[in-house]
Amino acid sequence: MSDKPSGLVQGTLDMLILKTLALEPLHGYGIALRIEQISKGVFHVNPGSLFPAFRRLERAGWIKPEWKPTENNRRAKYYLLTARGHSKLKSETREWGKQTAAIARILEAS
Amino acid sequence: MWLLRNLADGLRTLFRKKQAEREMDAELRDYLEAAVKEKVRLGMNPEEALRAARVEMGSMEAVKEGIRAAGWESTLEAVWQDLRYAVRMLRKNRGFTAVAVLTLALGIGANTAIFSLIDAVMLRMLPVQRPDELLLSRRYNPRWGGEAEPIFTNALWEQVRDQQDVFSGAFAWGADRLDLAQGGAVHLADTLWVSGGFFNALGLRPAAGRLIAASDDRRGCPAVAVLSYDFWQDRYGDANSAIGTMLLLNDHPFEVIGVAPSGFFGMNVGQKFDVAAPICSTAIIDGKESRLDHRSWWWLSVAGRLKPGISRSQLAARLRILSPGIFTAALPQNWSADGQRNFIKQTLVADSAATGISSLRRQFDQPLQVLMGVVGLVLLIACANIASLMLARAAARHKEIAVRQALGASRLRLIRQLLTECLLLSSGGALLGILFARWGIALLVRFISTARNAVFLDLSFDGRVLGFTAAIAALTAILFGLLPALRSTRVSLTSAMKGSQAIENEHRTRFHSRKWIVASQVALSLVLLVAAGLLLRSFAKLATVDIGFDRNNVLLVGADLKTAKIPPDEQLVTYEQIESRLTALPGVTSVGRSVMTPLSGGTWNNTIHTEWSKAVTGDDALTWFNYVSPGFFDALRMTLLAGREFNTGDTKTSPAVAVVNRTLAHRFFPGLNPIGKTFRIDDVAGKQGPPIEVVGIIKDAKYASLREDIHPTAFFPATQVAEHAEAETFELRTGMPPSALARPVQAAVASVNKEIPLEFHTLVELANDSMVQERLLALLSGFFGALALLLAMVGLYGTLSYLVNRRQTEFGVRMALGAQRGSILRLVMRDVMAVLAGGAVVGVGISLAATRLLQQMLFGLGPRDVVTMIAAVALLSVVALLAGYLPARRATKVDPMVALRYE
Hints:
The complex is a heterodimer.
Chain A: H1 13-23, E1 26-27, H2 28-38, H3 47-60, E2 63-69, E3 75-81, H4 83-109
Antiparallel strand pairs in A: 1-3, 2-3
Helix pairs in contact in A: 1-2, 1-4
Chain B: H1 2-15, H2 17-41, H3 46-57, H4 60-69, H5 73-92, H6 94-123, E1 134-140, H7 154-163, E2 167-179, E3 184-185, E4 188-194, H8 198-202, E5 208-209, E6 224-227, H9 229-236, E7 246-249, E8 252-259, E9 275-278, H10 282-286, E10 301-306, H11 312-329, H12 337-344, E11 347-352, H13 359-396, H14 398-406, H15 411-448, H16 463-488, H17 493-498, H18 500-544, E12 554-560, H19 568-583, E13 588-594, E14 605-609, E15 622-628, H20 632-636, E16 640-643, E17 657-661, H21 662-668, E18 678-681, E19 692-698, E20 713-717, E21 727-734, H22 742-752, E22 757-762, H23 763-769, H24 772-806, H25 808-816, H26 821-850, H27 866-892, H28 896-901
Parallel strand pairs in B: 3-22, 4-9, 6-8, 15-20, 17-19
Antiparallel strand pairs in B: 1-10, 1-11, 2-4, 2-10, 5-8, 6-9, 7-8, 12-21, 12-22, 13-21, 14-15, 14-18, 16-19, 17-20, 18-19
Helix pairs in contact in B: 1-2, 2-3, 5-15, 6-13, 6-15, 6-16, 7-11, 13-16, 13-18, 13-24, 15-16, 18-24, 18-26, 18-27, 19-22, 24-27, 26-27
């Protein structure tokens, strides 16, 4: 069972989902597509890791599901970022920035 | 907030499963659709797009499983599943379940019972306000060494009360027993003399009326009394009209002013009180010689609540500074100069009184620890039995486990499943065990209660006891469940699928672990048997030890002339009058009387000296005294060795004489004939008493208890008693069961004076009461030893039966090839012998190391008593061989044809 997203640094999927939702509420496939598009195809997220991540984030209170009608008049499950999710994203981003800067410094040091 | 939401979401998923699943389906379907649409948009044809999207998604079920596993409720669900499955499995094997639960209930119940006794006696806080702030005062003298004494005179207490500045509420109390009846057979009420601040300092509120206050406790106070809640209920049916009525205590009226709160039993754990009265009112009971002013009458305990802001070290320092003033002011004037110097050197110390004080602690501390160890061992043996059963069951479930593993169950999951079954078993055992414990502990308390001292304990199970039970239940489950679970989940799938022959090897290793289990059971039960043997033999020795008199058929009648208000100068005549009336009673063979009652635990002693015993000083010179009537030696059937007993010629005015025991004669008159020689008693003030002539030597006899070494003892004529003994005991040797004489005796005494309170006991009763500890230990260790033996043998029997069944084919083949029955029998018994020998060797080793703990509890034999050891090994061997022989004989009955047909 390989449910790790291809080429995705472990633990960053949650952050990417939060970031994606910071712009606007999206449904499951929308999120996957957005991540793939923005990363220019570098990250490809499969449903096997995406959906458990939704459940996890939902339970942590960072995202919230909402049933909305779609274009062809069906109800679909959208996710939107909560206030807790916003602050979480902010702190995660800050932490990420610190870490990548540090890693970059180490790699450039030699 | 989000936690709540998390919880709500989880619960919703659990309880509205269908809807949650529908939503999940819908969401995944949407995803698939959107993916297909996107792919079509990018130029794929619809069919290809669908296939590609499906490949991306993978197994829909796997994705769903992933989602479910992301929430906490999935763990809960798995546990629930395990539980349901466990219940189903246990119900399928009712016999096994019943045996396992019952065995565990016995083990866990025994542990709970002993622990709750330890909790009630040692650990529980007093039911008063903020008990952890309470401190108990003790007197410590560096010169005397030893432990600090927690007992005070009233003079000392008054000084502590008036001089101390470290306690926010200092208080004192002393226990007593006063008679509620007016003459005739006594009806004793446990009385607590309390200082005025007692109830207030403990923060207690009255259940009715009011409690004793500071204003009630001053010299010359009126007699008032507070009832305990239980006493109030029993005697007055909790009627408020009780307040204001008069209660007769030792024939003095006390006005009932209130009722103490329910649940409050006083400060002494193991006792209760019926009535509490202010300390000052002892003067009413005591009359002329009041304990309020008697400076060597030690009868009060003193405690206090530490003032806020004072640390323990500050307290100790302050008490050290206050001590000289307090002890000087309460100095007993009639003591010798040396004694007084030592008295003043004492300091006050204080330690926690949160759990109250208790005489049970010293008496039962060690026995309870031993019993805790014993029941712990029993539980271990029970665990071993069940582990053994579980292994056998694991063999039967071998296929099932293999199939489940083949279908993808992880080993961890299977172990969790198996352990759930174990937890369920041990929980059942614990619940039933608590019932057993409830019943057992009531029995235990009855064991440690004596005729004169009923033990009262709060036996409700508190959180600590229930926590303990839960903890041992969990521990047992792991203990008996883990090994079988690990073993049975270690299956090789291929061999399991191949069938019986390949499994054979695994069974063999499984049998090996069962053999280990049985051997350890043998070892543990041997330890228990040795301990039980030692304690039983020790008890038997104590029960049959030569006590120097004949304890059977002696009725003891305690008569209190003081309470009957008979003036001191008439008391001797009254006692003699009663004695002659009692002698005339039909069924009474002979009558004696004494100031000290034999085996009652009370002592009266002082140092003596003779001109031949200058070297005998200090504790060696301590001699036990009793004042007795001429009939005493005959009534108790004590043997006179030389000289004469007392007679009517020994009067108040005749020369002072004494009958001494052999030990005294040897110690104080070494190598001499003491008859006609004299000794002197050392007065408290250090002065010499008058010479006392020895007129007779009597055989050594026990004085206060059965366990004591024989003390030098001197008997004096009751007519020559120095101070007036206002209560004496009549010893009646009877030709019939002593208790049948209680009524005629009451009538006879009433014919002399109706007011005299009488307390009835038998000498056998007192003798038995002084063996409480030993009897408790012997009975319980005997019971648990037998239980352990039974469990171990069931284990051995079960394991061997299993082995014989497994090897049926082998035996069949052997017999078909010409093996004799005897050789088959030997084959099986060899295993029994191996297990027995291994277990016994280890068991003897452990016993030798462990029984040293019993040293102090044993009487008349050492902890490494060879006879006991051999007897225990022999008993164990006989029973083990029997338990092994039954299945072994079955092995010889194998019909070769039947056995071979299976192959």
